[in-house]
Structure formats: C-alpha cells, structure tokens
Amino acid sequence: MIRPSVSTPSTSMTTRMIFLSFSSISLQSPSSYQACLLVTTGYIPNQSMAKVDLSYRMPLKAREIVEAFLSRGGERIYLVGGFLRDLLLGRESHDIDLLYMGNPLEILENMDRPFFPLDVPRGIYRMMWGEYQVDVAAPKASFLEEDLRERDFTVNAMAYSLAGKELLDPWGGMEDLGARRLRAVTPWAFREDPLRVLRAFRISLQLSFTPTQDTLELATRVAPLLSQVAKERIKEEFSLILAHPHSVEVFKAMARRGVLGVLFPEVEEGKGILQGKWLGTDLRGHLLGTLYSLERILPYLRDFFPLHSSSIKDLLVEEVEGGYSRLKVLKLAAFLHDIGKPSTMVRRGNDLTFWGHDREGGERVRTLGERLG
C-alpha cells in the first residue's frame, strides 16, 4: 500500500531569499537538489508548508498572468499541478494550472478576456493568454489538503498561495521531486481516473523520474479500466506521448507491465510470433524496434536526406487533425505497420508467410482508430 507522507504544517520556518539559480546545480543528485531548495527558498523537504517567493522563477509573461488572477482572486487563488511542479524543477511550461477556492466564474468574468468551459460539472475553465494556456478549476473538496489528496501523483499534489507566498505540500511532493520519484498520492488514485495509468508512463519519461513499485503495481492492476475512458481523452494523452522524441520508451514500459495489450491488443498478438530467419525478434519486438529506429533517424534527417531534409521537416510538422502532426501519424504507422500479420500467418513447409497482411493491417488500423478516437 502507498502511504502518503503527511507532515505537520510549520508556520515558523524562516524564509531565506537567496536568489541562486537552480540550473547551476545538478538535479540528478537528490542531495544537491534538496540543498539547493534549502538555500534558495528556505524550504525543507518533509515540511508541509513553507514561506517562499516563487515569482522570480517565472517568465515575465507568466508572472503577469498569475498577478492578474491574484488581483481578482486574492487569498483564494493557488498555483497548482504541472506548472508548479515544472517551476520547482526549473522546466519551462506554458500550461498554467490555477485552483480557485470558490466558483471560477467569479474571477473569470472579470478578466476581460474570452474563456470557455472544459468541464462545467467539475468547474474547470480555460483561457488562452498569448502563448499560455490557463486552466482555472474549482476545488474537488471543501479543504485544500483534501483537494490535493485527490490528485494523481505527489509531485502534482502541491499548491502555491499567490497571496501568502506559501508552498503547501501535505503529501510529500517535494521529497519525491528531490528523489526524482513518481508516486501515486493514494491507493485509489488510478481507480478514480484510469487515464492516470497512461499519465504515469508519460510523466516518468518526460521528467526522467522512476515510478515507485507500488505505483506501477497499482497502474497495472487498474489498466483494464482504460477501456472505460472517453476515447477523446485517450487520443489527447497519446498525442502528448508521441510528441516526445523517445516515445517508444513509453510503449516499451507499457509492454513490460502488460498494459500495452489493453490498448493495442493487435500489437500484443505479435508476442512470440517469429517472422523467419531474417528477423531476430518476435513480431511485437519488431514493431517496437521499428518505432525505435524511426526515432533514432529523425534527428539526422540532414545526413540521410541532405537535399530534402528541410522539406521533410516542414512536412512532418503539418497538423493532420486534432493536435496530431504528420510526424505523430508517421510514428503510429511505424508502430502498427505489421499488425495484420498474426491473422494472415500460414506455415508453408519450414517457412511462415503473411500474404495479404497489408490489407488486413489496414482494416485493423481502421478498427483501432475508431476504438481509440
């Protein structure tokens, strides 16, 4: 069982405002990372509350945005989620997550900017502000700690009071940031929203974090419930996965944990199917290997295609539909190109043939696309 690291809030901590750049200290070392936190912010991991000014770490435009919300939201507005996590890690992010302890419409309607609902029953709204995407949400519970407890991972379950300049960390998120560890907040985190299974693999890759064993076991156990998630959400999550230059690592990790077959049973059917003497791995391994090889080649297009690399790059960034570029579609094509082979496999003497697998594969991809959005 995952046991959240709950600690008693400390309001007597002395703030040390020494402006030392996080980038000058290696974040690969938990000890140096925690030392940096202590020097720059006065924050000590395992404390659930600390006075700290994070505004100087924000890009000027992001600071302008959060200050505009602060002027209207006062003490009830908090910075949360991935933006806060990335801010603490020194990573750039253009997706600002805000929590308003009330009805978000109270402040959004006074912002003099257009906004639109993402989820009206849950009180989630989005506003575009230049290159920034700002999501404002109502709390899921009456108290802030309870709201944070309902989030996915401890590193995303912190809140920063814009008015009080306090970092609230009731579930040990800072300690896990320092250890580069991904840990579910509660044992029911994945069951509350099975899409978090995919998020666990994606965030681990993006941040180079290691999921705890308990978190992996919980994700594996809940993976079959992914079939109940709206296909639009699955599609969006895979778009984020495919955007990573090494997205194959997510697919490999899912294969190791038995999660890949839940979403791509057509690929899982290839496990154990050998394709003859020319390929030294089974069909599933071949599909993963093809995606791996594609992602290895992409950074070197100029070497492979010196006369056409610029045109190819321009073509690959073109959007096909709904956030999917030609590059993302190409990655999917590489990953799925032979999924028609299991159902067309025939042994002829000492050899295996897969006649017609291209047509069968096309039909399977069509069915898979309808299923996953």
Strand percentage: 5-15%
Strand elements, count:
14
How are the strands ordered across the major sheet? 1-8-7-2-3-6-5-4
Count of discrete structural domains: 2
Query: Rg to the nearest angstrom?
Result: 23 Å
What is the tally of helical segments? 18
In CATH's first tier, which class of the largest domain applies?
Alpha Beta
Task: Name its key features.
373 residues, alpha+beta, 2 domains, 8-stranded mixed β-sheet, two-stranded parallel sheet, 14 strands
Describe the overall structure:
With 373 residues, the chain is of the alpha+beta class. It folds into 2 domains: 22-178, Beta Polymerase, domain 2 (2-Layer Sandwich); 260-372, no CATH class. It contains 18 helices and 14 strands. The chain has helices at residues 30-41, 60-73, 81-89, 105-108, 144-149, 173-178, 189-192, 196-207, 213-222, 231-242, 248-256, 260-263, 265-268, 283-297, 301-304, 309-316, 326-336, 357-372; strands at residues 49-51, 77-80, 95-100, 116-119, 124-129, 132-137, 159-161, 166-168, 181-182, 210-211, 319-321, 324-325, 346-348, 351-353. The strands form 4 sheets. The chain has an 8-stranded mixed beta sheet. The chain has a two-stranded parallel ribbon with strand order 9-10. The protein has a two-stranded antiparallel ribbon with strand order 11-12. β5 and β6 (132-137) form a beta hairpin. It is elongated. The chain starts with 29 loop residues before the first helix and ends with a helix.
